[in-house]
Structure of Molybdopterin molybdenumtransferase:
Amino acid sequence: MIEVKDAIKVIKSNLKPKEDTKTIDIINSINMVSAQDIYSPIDNPPFDRSPYDGYAYDANINRNELTVVGEIYAGEIFKGVLHRNESVKIMTGAKIPNGANCVIKKEDVSVINENKIIVNKNLKMYDNYIFKGEDIPKNQLIIRKGDIISYESIGILASLGIKEISVYDNLKIGILNTGTEIQELDEILEDGKIFDSNRYILHSRLLKRNIEPVIIDKVEDEIEELESKIKNILKNVDILITTGGVSVGDKDLVPKAFKNLGGKELFWKVKAKPGGACCASVLDEKLLFGLSGSPHASGVVYENILVPVIEYMSHKDSYNTIKAIFKGNFNKKAKIDRYLNGRLYTEDAKLYVEMTDKKDAKARLWATLNSNCMIKVKKGSILEDDQLVEVVII
Ligand SMILES: Nc1nc2c(c(=O)[nH]1)N[C@H]1C(S)=C(S)[C@@H](COP(=O)(O)OP(=O)(O)OC[C@H]3O[C@@H](n4cnc5c(N)ncnc54)[C@H](O)[C@@H]3O)O[C@H]1N2
Ligand code: MOO
């Protein structure tokens, strides 16, 4: 039995981040990890432009009455050159014409007629003037290899005309739900059987992290069939996650199957409550991870061990824990770290967390319904009202 942090460590030391890359349209790149440094190929903005609707002119005027010699809208250009005491009516975003070096807002002029204005403010050169490349100059490093693509970075890429980028390929993950008792949702529930909820929870958990499982299958508690399914799935995945069959029962065959197939066992059982029943092996640089069949227990291990591992293998690092003020009481001491279903909420600009399952019954799915986090109770401790607690964002 090892600590959660050591479980993560031992997996990381036996597996490398996935190096495969692919080139994709930026529209599909949200939350992907860039596999390249990206430099700006152009200046942004690509030309000197006006920040206001107004009039562009040379600030070195020698009178405040100016002749209006033309008008430019955004997207258009003024072909001539402005002379002193001449101006051009200009709209926000339009290219500032040659000869002009400032823009006066429309509100700051008196219009005499179509061809004449009086400027009511003294502007200096480059007042109200946006320079070419002022936002992002050409050759600027905008995204580093390893950066997670955000919608802001997608916006910047688009503004620079970059349509495709190279990213690390998604991890290929397979799900294998084990158990003779589990049934498909469209079957009639037989006596002694249950519907397979783990598959749906796990699939959704992966989707939430932008990972579409490549294979989803189920298998009864029969060692040969189990081994053969695992073997087949492994051909196409980087990580295989199983649920069920990892404890000490006669039909808890998953650790045995991993071993029989030649997997190197990294651990069996971790110090977490619930979730202690789980196992991990590596085989051909792939991770075989056996989660417990119990839905909350498997969620604890998924969020606290698998997420950091998945993030690591995806070149990310975002195991999120924060501190919040605990509301309520929890008096059960345990010899190992415990994880409670919780709900974070804010009140008067403070972050609070409360339990969603007063009984902390590990098998209860209901308690997970309104949960948005897990509350960590360190071994040997209890929780008191208003104390600060560590919370894992899920
Ligand atoms: N003698 C002992 N018995 C058990 C121990 C122990 O230490 N000694 N540990 C208990 C704990 S804690 C847990 S957790 C479970 C872990 O069991 P497994 O991981 O082997 O999982 P199963 O036995 O296959 O299933 C547990 C539970 O979850 C239900 N289940 C299974 N698959 C699904 C699914 N796809 N969807 C919904 N529910 C599922 C299954 O029917 C069981 O009720 O072992 C304890 N026993
Ligand atoms: O070990 Mo079980 O996995 O506590 O719920």
In short: The chain has four domains: 4-19+170-313, 21-44+134-168, 54-119, 321-393. The helical segments are 4-14, 151-159, 197-208, 223-234, 254-260, 295-313.
